[in-house]
Design a protein that fits this description.
The protein contains eleven helices and twelve strands. It is of the alpha+beta class and 367 residues long. The chain has a single domain, classed as Beta-lactamase (3-Layer(aba) Sandwich), CATH 3.40.710.10.
Length: 367
């Protein structure tokens, strides 16, 4: 009898605990919603969507504003945004997958896989994949993305790499830090040549589809027209004349997704490569992705493999922001706390990093 009483007591206690957790999560969600609603109104933001996960569960999804100024279609968490440089950790994940498969090493020189890659400085010959992933390769950045004259064919990636032959270098590889979209665009061509499929096809079949992000794509024409959003520029915001898509910049910039789908990206990373019984990376590979790789580079911020490393309220963070014509985005994970926040906005003026930090603080306060 006493054993039965203890079992019943434990069940009741568990039920009470679950009810309390649900109530607490609802309270946090309400505070996030109030916070974002006030920020959107105060900032005159045309559109904003956000999602939050904690301890393996989605505790918040919200959307504010419209798909396009001048229209009256309200945003939802399923609407698709240009995520800009939030694309880069997908490049790193793909390369680490290829490393796990024994097809590359992070210390490989870029020319080992792209023999046609060259710069107008012989020091380019020693550039490694790792240096490109942490922005210490000494490469310059893109000056004109040509959003108004996009290239759609698969050959755009290799052509862009070949056009780098006139670029100089900022310093010897490993001697300094400079953020370079060009480096990631070249890495996309590495993924294509090593895997035998286009960069976009590789990421779709090896990352996006396996974790339940089939509605996302690095190829904008593949996105459902009913879910696309329009970018806005200027102050006050006005509709952008171009959408930031060009296949030559797919690896650095052209992830199109929704916060509802990016929830899966946060969950699989917070769970170190596993989601719903499937695995895209070994647990150990996160020690590479989230381990500081720029310690020896003077003036460099802490960077893993594409991910930027930091702290918020004394907690470890790994994050990446995105900024292109008409769009802003940000993703931040707090691996030790099981927290992830993602934001996407269709206005260049949205301070997504500050909003991400504000949401994370509300979640921490709700612990």
């Amino acid at each position: 009898m006493s054993r039965s009483i203890r079992v019943i007591g434990s069940a009741v206690l568990l039920a009470m605990c679950c009810v309390a957790q649900r109530a607490e999560a609802q309270d946090v969600a309400s505070r996030i919603d109030e916070y974002l609603s006030a920020e959107v109104e105060a900032g005159g933001i045309p559109g904003l969507t956000a999602a939050v996960v904690r301890d393996g569960e989605v505790i918040y999804e919200g959307a504010f504003g419209v798909r396009r100024l001048g229209g009256n279609e309200a945003l939802t968490s399923d609407h698709v945004f240009h995520f800009a440089s939030v694309s880069k950790p997908f490049v790193a994940t793909a390369l680490v997958q290829l490393m796990e498969d024994g097809q590359i090493e992070l210390g490989d020189r870029l020319t080992d896989h792209l023999p046609y890659f060259r710069l107008a400085d012989d020091r380019y010959r020693t550039i490694t994949i790792r240096q490109m992933l942490n922005h210490t390769a000494g490469m310059v950045d893109v000056r004109d993305y040509e959003w108004g004259a996009p290239q759609y064919d698969e050959g755009a990636a290799e052509r862009f790499v070949r056009q780098m032959a006139t670029d100089g270098m900022l310093w010897a590889p490993g001697d300094g830090f400079r953020y370079s979209n060009k480096a990631f665009d070249a890495l996309g061509d590495v993924i294509a040549k090593v895997s035998g499929m286009s960069f976009e096809e590789y990421v779709q079949s090896h990352i996006l589809d396996p974790i339940g992000m089939s509605g996302s794509s690095f190829i904008h024409p593949d996105i459902d027209e009913d879910l696309r959003t329009t970018g806005h520029v200027g102050t006050p915001p006005r509709v952008s004349e171009v959408y930031p898509y060009n296949r030559r910049h797919a690896p650095s910039s052209t992830l199109n997704s929704s916060v509802g789908q990016m929830v899966n990206w946060m969950l699989v990373n917070l769970n170190r490569g596993e989601l719903r019984g499937g695995r895209i990376l070994s647990r150990e590979s996160y020690d590479l992705l989230w381990g500081t790789t720029t310690d020896s580079v003077e003036g460099a911020p802490p960077v893993g493999l594409s991910w930027f490393l930091g702290e918020l309220e004394g907690r470890r963070t790994v994050s990446h922001g995105g900024a292109d014509t008409g769009f802003r985005s940000n993703i931040m994970l707090m691996p030790d706390d099981g927290i992830g926040v993602v934001i996407a906005s269709n206005w260049s003026g949205t301070g997504t990093q500050a909003l991400t930090n504000g949401i994370a603080r509300l979640v921490l306060e709700g612990r």
